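Continuing the series of single-chain predictions for the mutant panel. This is the parent chain; the variants come on the following pages.
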Amino acid sequence: MESRSFGRTALVLLLACLLVCSLAAIAESQGIQQSPYSGANMGREGIDLAPSNPLGMPGGPRGPESLYVSDGMLRTLMPLIPNLQFGYLYDFGSNRVNMGRFTADYMLPFSLGCNSEVFVEAHTEFDSFWNTLKSAFTRGDTTTYKNGFNNRVDLSFGGGFRSFVRHDTLVGVNGFYDTSRLGGTWYSSGGLGFEMAALVGGNDAIDLNFNWYGKLFNSTVIANAFRYGPSNFDFQAGYCHELWNGGPDLRLSATGYKFDIGESVWGWNAGAELKTRGNMFVLKYAVGNDKVDRTYQTIGGFINVGFQLENLFRGESPFTKPEPIFLSPRNLRYMLTQKVDRNWHQPAAVVVARNVTNPSNPPDPTPLTTTANAGTIYSGFAPLPFSIAPQVSLSATAAFSTLTVTFSSPVPGSGPSGVATLALQTNGDNTGNVSISGGASSVTISKATHPRFFGEGGIGGTTYIGLILEQHTGAGNWNAGLVTLTWH
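Parent structure:
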């Protein structure tokens, strides 16, 4: 047994020697250089076994043994990622039209070094209204209902400047051109804003935003826009808190605002936003109150993606991850690519009132127009209101003396006044009826005789919201169609 074991051991040693010799021969044939620390010189000259000193000064003390590099340090050397955002918001309230809004925003930053940027931004919203005012038609035992349906489009284009004044404080200014399409008419305005954000104790942050909105793009009023008004502004304070280590991020905000519809309206809202660590998904809820909309609420969500258009020219996908919120620790730099916090969707009454108000020696005001889709008015049916779009504040009509109401087709029949009647509904009252004679395709209402159609005469409410038409029994059905109301 011992001789057999010795034989196996000798065989293993022999094979090992053959393997070492073979490797040495291969190394020499391939020209692989030997280490300078091998061979005869190593024994004579000695070896410096001390590690190298790349982080120390020449001839000086040793530097640190390791260098810490974080993703945040490298992030400041990389270009900012443009942000593309899509969202949906649903508004509802006790005195507010239920409304769904689709939103899109593209923010394109241009770096001015590591700590500053200029940016351009485009924002759009499309609103669809439903359950506005409901009209009922009764024929025999059957009652059918017709819902009003309208839409609105808002577009904003602008840009600004943002910069870090310290590593933990960001400030910025911005300006925007806004235009809104209401009832087939475009209304333009502008806005200026200031923003600030700063890191606070722990891993949290605060932000402050002030925005002013007015008629900045009309040469007749721009000189007095700030001095005379109408003055519309808001101020928002926000607080961001990291819920767990690395997110998600919870932002709480409170906003106070004032807008002008011929009279000053003050209001407030408070909200919460929950953002994922990478800032890709956002959930939002807000509640507010003012004397026009009373108590209203908003709920919705957003998706953020990085959108680098230049990638298309390299045959790559333009979509990337957005700037993350947390990068060991909070990454305040991500706010360089976030959309501006401002009111992109101002109340329709504000948009219209701003465009009929000239603060200094105003000329005759621009005619104010709204529409209602009345369809067919059935003879003898109880009158119910049709929604008008845009809704019109009572104060916005005070500057006018005449209201012309035009129908798509004339009232059936001919003859004496009183074949049909017309009235306007407010959010708290109605104007009372005006008679329409048979065969008429329009009716003109004077402020001198019917002041309640012009926000006067003791009418209640703040906004005209509906058109009431009634076709008297025996006159035949009336296809009123699209009805246009113009104050001039």
